[in-house]
Design brief:
Residues 872-933 form the HTH luxR-type domain. It holds the Pfam family AAA_16. It contains 44 helices and seven strands. By secondary structure, it is mostly helical. Among the domains are: 13-204, P-loop containing nucleotide triphosphate hydrolases (Rossmann fold), CATH 3.40.50; 213-241 and 250-268, no CATH class; 276-346; 497-620, no CATH class; 881-928, Winged helix-like DNA-binding domain superfamily/Winged helix DNA-binding domain (Arc Repressor Mutant, subunit A), CATH 1.10.10. Strands 2-3-4-1-5 form a five-stranded parallel beta sheet, sandwiched between helices. Strands 6-7 form a two-stranded antiparallel sheet. Helix 5 links the parallel strand 3 (141-146) and strand 4 (170-176). Helix 30 (640-650) runs antiparallel to helix 31 and helix 39 (810-826) runs antiparallel to helix 40. It starts with 12 loop residues before the first helix and ends in a 12-residue tail after the last helix.
Length: 933
């Protein structure tokens, strides 16, 4: 038999060139896609061999088919290679200290660990920032993640984060099998859009054609050529998959004729090629290889020899190339196909005994690898151990935040035909109870729907599972239109379990979701309280009480704060305190909507504290999200956009953050961004979204249409949004809609309709503890009178301005102050001009550049000098404030006409500013302009 040399890379000339060029133009994100054995790893390493110098570290991480719960493990594994390349700890970004627990090997060169954050979402975002900062500190680097199809959700989200905001000089390369992705077609879990300035490629690898198979086989056999009939037969049998070609050719005794493959008795399949290679090994080596196949993962020498074989046999298997050494002194197969081929060839009784030995060996490991123990116990036929380890593995994964793995374990157990019938119900409930976020809730939904379609669940178990599914859809999924019918169906199935039925009804009673009227919500709440009164379950009783408190606060009930004070904060039960934590977090949101900002902040602080103490995570996240809205309303805009972007990057459900981004874009005149963000906040499907935020988003869209002069669109949006609010009947939420809607109606001449809306709004908020709504009522009255009764309008606007300032809502107060000033100017009161100048300054200080420009335009129309501060004249000095704003809009791709509309300037003036910006920045084209910092 010939002694094959190391194979060359065949048939990948174009792909190799593309990959090398992408690696040479960082920041870059390259995804190499192809089926098992197609040569993804070989292509990547060939590119690295041709490109990498010693000054550019290559950081390698591997995803494994069987993994223990260690979020971000592949990236953490890769980062261990940066030792010796980092600057001193004092030169590192302090946020990298968050990696100490993940990278103990680097603790001596990392800054101190920062205090742990209460919000898990914020903690995760800080960890992501730390990894990005560490990669930035390493300098130009190549991060290679192999087998992304086996990655956990956390690793995918981390890679997506790095891909969205890559450090300068970083190239991320990931290999994956498309057919094995958990989310078909999405290797990073969600649709990836290349950020500006980043090279982004997907390189699909196809099977080799016949000439390429010939080249590979010749290289393997050290032959200048091969018989055409033999090559044709080899191509036919291997389907051109390079790894299969290699394994088959290596097992051939010769290649003298077209029937060589048949004479050798080696058919197409890799398992037979591996069997041929195994036949040449000693019994000790065969035992070592079979032990590695049973263990599946690359493992240490001791574990392989414990399960089967000895060190001498392991050494022979390594020298023969059947096993390979992996980083960290671990040994295994070069490819999963080879492992599977060997495993399938082991006789069943021998496999079972090997799995038993693996169980015994792994049971001695501290901490025990529960996922592996569950796998081996199942393969050994030990159903009791399988159930025990599987449940423990799911619990551990969920506790560590690796929800995707917990789902995977439970799903695998439920899909097993040998699962004992009595265990199916409890495992189904365990799956439905998982606190899922991000991508995982979608998988829970699919699995629970499948389980609910089956007929093995009892009615009681089915009802609870359906209830949990509905809660996940409404809360984490943000899909009330689908989730609420599931909860209603669950309530009917739970008629023998009144406490759980009460929990479902109390969830339906929350008016923030659904299209039902406030009266219907109140009826559901009353039924829930009636059912829970006879139940002996403190946790569920607390859940219903919490929803009652949230219900009262959300509608601005006069006794809302009195009822809130009854929450059992000091209850000894953890289950009760978790519900109370949820209650305080919901109170934070409702109080923010109503305008009780100091109380909201106190509620949020208490809720996050209780959530951390009782170990419940999701409610604390809701505080983090709704805090962005509170910061927006109260004028705390510094860094707010970055905070909101971080939230929407890490969560599929962050409506408040989308609303804030839309509102900020509206204040700066970024019309297209404002429209897109406001639609994401709930206007894409307002009947299925979180109603208070969707109502506010509708108000923002009306303002957007008015700013763009699209009065007809503004009126259409106003009529539709008001109809939805009227159907719901919670008028206190109209604080962020009614003034805009009345403005649109009044400008369109539909004054009577606007007057009826104002009267309806006044009746709806009468007696309610809703300071934001009462301020908005005077705002709406002023808007109604603005064009016809300016003196009356000015008085209403003045009252509204004072109320907004007292809340405080500084931006809205300034907007209403501008309307008041314009009303007084309409009366001939020129003393209102300095007020516009002051408001322009106030808008500018907040960052509301479009509003500031509108005030300055009004001042120019009055012949008053604009208060815009100016930079140095001439030369190549720094950009002036006006030039910075022009540069920002140019960088966003706006035309001169669009910039003129946003900044209330003439097109000629904008042209002059653009020319000055290009000259000062030393650029030739406006396409080169980056947003100023």
């Amino acid at each position: 038999m010939n002694n094959p040399s190391s194979p060359v890379l065949v048939g990948r000339t174009s792909e190799l060139r593309i990959l090398i060029e992408a690696m040479a133009r960082p920041p870059a994100v390259v995804l190499v896609e192809g089926e098992a054995g197609i040569g993804k790893t070989r292509l990547v390493h060939a590119a690295l061999d041709r490109l990498v110098s010693g000054d550019r570290p290559v950081l390698l991480g591997y995803c494994h088919q069987i993994r223990e719960p260690f979020p971000y493990g592949p990236v953490v594994e890769a980062l261990r290679e940066v030792a010796g390349r980092l600057p001193a700890a004092e030169a590192l970004n302090p946020v990298t200290g968050a990696l100490r627990d993940y990278l103990p090997e680097l603790s001596h060169v990392l800054p101190p660990s920062p205090p742990r954050l209460n919000d898990p979402r914020a903690e995760r975002h800080r960890l992501f920032r730390a990894m990005r900062a560490l990669l930035a500190a390493v300098g130009p680097a190549l991060l290679v993640i192999e087998d992304l199809h086996w990655a956990d959700d956390g690793t995918r989200e981390l890679l997506r984060f790095l891909a969205d905001q890559p450090p300068e000089g970083l190239t991320v390369v990931a290999t994956y099998r498309r057919e094995d992705l958990s989310t078909p077609g999405l290797p990073l879990g969600r649709t990836y859009r290349r950020p500006p300035g980043t090279t982004s490629l997907v390189i699909p690898l196809r099977p080799l054609d016949a000439p390429e198979v010939n080249s590979l086989a010749c290289a393997l056999l050290n032959r200048p050529d091969l018989p055409p009939a033999f090559v044709a037969r080899l191509h036919e049998r291997t389907a051109g998959i390079p790894f299969v070609v290699e394994e088959v050719v290596r097992s051939l005794p010769d290649a003298e004729g077209p029937d060589a493959l048949d004479r050798a008795g080696v058919p197409l399949l890799l398992r037979e090629a591996m069997a041929e290679r195994m036949a040449a090994l000693s019994p000790a080596a065969v035992s070592a290889v079979q032990a590695a196949a049973v263990l599946r993962l690359p493992v240490g020498e001791q574990l392989i020899t414990t399960v089967g074989g000895d060190s001498a046999g392991l050494g022979q298997a390594l020298r023969a190339g059947v096993l390979h050494e992996h980083p960290g002194g671990r040994y295994g197969f070069r490819h999963a196909l080879a492992q599977q081929a060997v495993y399938d060839a082991i006789p069943g009784p021998d496999r079972r005994l090997a799995h038993e030995r693996a169980m015994a060996a792994l049971a001695e490991v501290t901490p025990p690898p529960l996922v592996q123990l569950a796998f081996h116990s199942r393969q050994a036929g030990d159903i009791g151990a399988w159930l025990r380890h599987g449940r423990a593995a799911a619990d551990q994964a969920a506790a560590l935040g690796d929800t995707a793995l917990a789902i995977e374990v439970l799903d695998g157990m439920l899909a097993d035909p040998d699962l004992p019938e009595p265990d199916r119900g409890p495992l189904s409930l365990a799956l439905s109870r998982l606190d899922t976020t991000g991508l995982s809730h979608q998988r829970v939904e699919r699995l629970m729907r499948r389980l609910l379609r089956d007929d093995f669940l009892s009615r009681e178990v089915r009802g609870e599972a359906r209830l949990n599914l509905g809660m996940v859809l409404c809360n984490q999924g943000g899909d009330s239109s689908t989730g609420r019918p599931e909860i209603l169906a669950a309530v009917a199935e739970l008629h023998d379990r009144p406490a759980l039925a009460a929990r479902g009804l109390a969830g339906l009673a929350m008016p923030e979701w659904g299209t039902e009227s406030l009266a219907t919500h109140a009826e559901w709440m009353a039924r829930a309280e009636e059912l829970i009164a006879t139940a002996d379950d403190p946790g569920l009783a607390a859940a219903v009480l919490v929803n009652r408190v949230a219900f009262q606060m959300s509608i601005g009930s006069p006794d809302a704060f009195t009822v809130a004070a009854t929450l059992p904060v000091a209850d000894p039960s953890t289950a009760v305190r978790r519900e109370v934590a949820r209650g305080y977090c919901n109170l934070h949101d409702s109080a923010t909507t109503l305008g009780h900002y100091a109380a909201a902040e106190a509620f949020g602080r208490r809720g996050q504290q209780l959530a951390a103490e009782s170990g419940v995570l999701y409610p604390a996240h809701t505080v983090q999200v709704s805090t962005t809205r509170r910061r927006w309303l109260t004028g705390q805009w510094e860094g707010l956009r970055d905070q909101a972007i971080a939230l929407v990057e890490l969560s599929t459900e962050a409506p408040d953050a989308w609303l804030v981004l839309g509102s900020l874009a509206l204040a700066t005149g970024d019309w297209e961004e404002a429209r897109r963000y406001l639609y994401n906040a709930g206007m894409d499907a307002p009947d299925a979204r979180y109603v208070p935020v969707a109502v506010a988003a509708a108000g923002g869209l009306i303002e957007l249409h008015l700013a763009r002069g699209a009065l007809e669109h503004a009126v259409t949006e106003a009529v539709q949004a008001v109809a939805r609010l009227r159907r719901k009947g919670v008028w206190v939420w109209g604080a962020y809609l009614v003034p805009s809607a009345v403005t649109a109606l009044a400008r369109a001449g539909r004054v009577q309709e606007g007057a009826e809306l104002v009267a309806e709004f006044a009746d709806g908020i009468a007696g309610r503890l809703a300071p934001a709504a009462h301020a908005a009522l005077d705002h709406a009255r002023g808007a109604l009178a603005a064009d016809r009764r300016p003196a009356e309008a000015a008085d209403f606007f003045a009252r509204a301005r004072e109320a907004y300032e007292a809340l405080p809502q500084p931006y809205t107060a300034a907007r209403v102050g501008e309307s008041e000033a314009r009303a007084r100017l309409a009366l001939g009161d020129r003393s209102a001009a300095p007020v516009l100048a002051e408001l322009a300054e106030r808008f500018g200080a907040l960052g509301a550049t479009h509003d500031a420009a509108r005030c300055r335009r009004a001042l120019r129309d009055l012949g008053v000098e604009s208060p815009l501060p100016r930079g140095r004249k001439g030369g190549a000095g720094p950009l002036s404030p006006r030039e910075k704003e022009v540069a920002r809009l140019v960088a966003l791709g706006r035309t001169n006409r669009e910039i003129a509309d946003v900044l209330f300037l003439s097109t000629r003036t904008v042209e002059t500013h653009v020319a000055t910006v290009l000259r000062k920045l030393g650029l030739r084209s406006r396409t080169e302009v980056a947003p100023p910092v």
